[in-house]
Amino acid sequence: MRLLLIKTVQLCWQVAMNRLMSMYLKIIFENRCKSYMDILVMCILIWSYNVNNFWFCQQQLEGHTYQINCLLVNQDENIIFSSGDDKKIIIWKNDQQWEVSQSIQEHNSSVYGLSLNDSQNKLISCGFDLYILVFQCSEQNSNWNLIQKIQTIAGGYRLCFISNNQFTFQPINQDVMEVYSKDQKGEEYSKSQGIKIKRGFDQNCFFPQQYIKQKQLLINKNGSCINVVKVLESGQLMVEQCIEFETNYIFGAANDNGDYLVTWDYVTKDLQLRQYQE
Predict the structure, then answer these.
(1) What class is the 2-275 domain?
(2) Can you give the residue ranges of every domain in the chain?
(3) pLDDT-derived band of residue 35, with 50, 70 and 90 as boundaries?
(4) Distance of CA 26 to the CA centre of its chain
(5) Residue 277 in 3-state DSSP?
(6) Angle, vertex CA 94, rays to CA 89 and CA 99, nearest 5
(7) pLDDT tens digits, one per residue of 91-141
């Protein structure tokens, strides 16, 4: 990966890219909002811009009672999933205005990671309570119902669907990333593989796993390392590259086709832009 550095002055807590790549960075700086969705501790701020391209806060979503840890938007961009330290997963739907559609409290501790499958009908979550929860969307009333509870060896900050039948899970402070696959009956997920990866002490959940379908690559931050994992046609996974930092406070994201990876870390305070090369 080719590297470009941009020095920043303020702290950067999250990095994202828009789909058209017309704006390479949408960044949430400390006390400064420049993104479509922003988190203000317990609130979600929805931002939009007017004809003069000035950003304004369109709506403030209140429903969590403690810090929000994760935001997830469906493919149609009309449903938001949020989770936090209040043990809740809140589902918001947009009908003129964003409103709470469902509030789920099945975890016993903070909820750190969320992911939707390709079909958008299954949701998985992980947190500090040593469980991965699998939810399915009802065709009758569109409610999300718990269908499976998987016990894990440790809590987890990150998990991600890589297909309808397979997802990955990163236990906190472990040097193995776990892969879960559907059983032969196609009903439940079970652990099918463990991938040895580099790790370090991890203290935050704000760099979620990201699967790049076009390149069959999984971006997995673990401690002070970013592991780039290749998903083979056989369904097996292998580490293709490991990018090491001097801190576990790393935040970043790749664009949709995986051509670029942007990161910011607490030590260098640089925005680092890496370009993928086959």
Answers:
(1) mainly beta
(2) 2-275
(3) very low
(4) 16
(5) coil
(6) 55
(7) 999 888 999 999 999 999 999 999 999 999 999 999 999 999 999 999 999
